[in-house]
Amino acid sequence: MRFWQSRKQGEANTMHVYRFYVPIKPQIGVVSLSGDVAHRICNVLRKRVGDEVVLTDGCGHEMRARIVEMQRGKVTVAVEEVTQPSRESEMLVCVAASILKGERFELLIQKAVEVGVREILPLLSCRTVARISDAEKKRSRWLSIAISAMEQSGGCVLPRIYEPMKLEEALQALSSFDVKLILHERASKMMRELVNELRGIKSAAIFVGPEGGFDDSEVELALACGAIPVCLSKRILRAETAAIVGASILVHCL
How many Å apart are CA 117 and CA 177, to the nearest integer? Predict the structure, then answer.
């Protein structure tokens, strides 16, 4: 009984503090919030005056603030502390993944950002089945999902979502990365074998094909551009799973 009472008391003291992306200059003082952020605070989360929230500018800063006033469509907070948390990976990781049908690509974006990926490049490969009727609208939706994942996971750097590209364009766009990996089920080298070889690099891009993998001509093109073919597992992984697993290895093992 005593244990239960103690536990409940501890839970009350560690109430979850919600985080929001707000592109403002990080500073101590009074800040007015409006639009979607104010709507979420007032109508979705139903926060009250005196409640604490955390803001991030998407550039590495975090602002601890307290709600001081709430009006229709507007929330005023007082920023009490500005910090630069060290939660981001020191290595820049980009996942260049073939667009998948339905919500699977959205899941890929969400989980990749949660594990620490800061860039997502949607690929239009030879075997891509999904079709995009309104690329800009879709890209806006993907960025919204990435921002939500950043907020939820404690990230402070705004994820970048590239416009959809063909593989040749993507290889060019990511040519400055220290290393480029392409997932291929017939690759002779397992990704875990590369970990020691890649220690110390500052940026890595991982290319993930659609269901069925990359076409042979695409693999040859990637190899010609310096990409290293790697295999994740002896098991067969779905495309979105492969992207998340590959990204996790890069972010957390390097």
Answer: 14
